[in-house]
Fold this protein.
Amino acid sequence: MEHGQICKACQGTGMLADDEGWQYKCRICNGDGLYNSADVRPSEILDVDETNRILD
Ligand SMILES: [Zn+2]
């Protein structure tokens, strides 16, 4: 596949889960499990903490 890469945040599942088992759509890849490296910058990957905050 040349059109994208497996999302490292969710490992291609499109979903993320926190330590308590909450699952939510991966905001890095918008739930499709893939992202284009040209569209995602490392700073955005690190921004995943903002998603965790919503679950608080
Ligand atoms: Zn993802």
In short: Residues 49-54 form the longest helix (6 residues). Residues 5-54 form one domain. The mean pLDDT is 76. The CA atoms of residues 8 and 21 lie 19 Å apart.
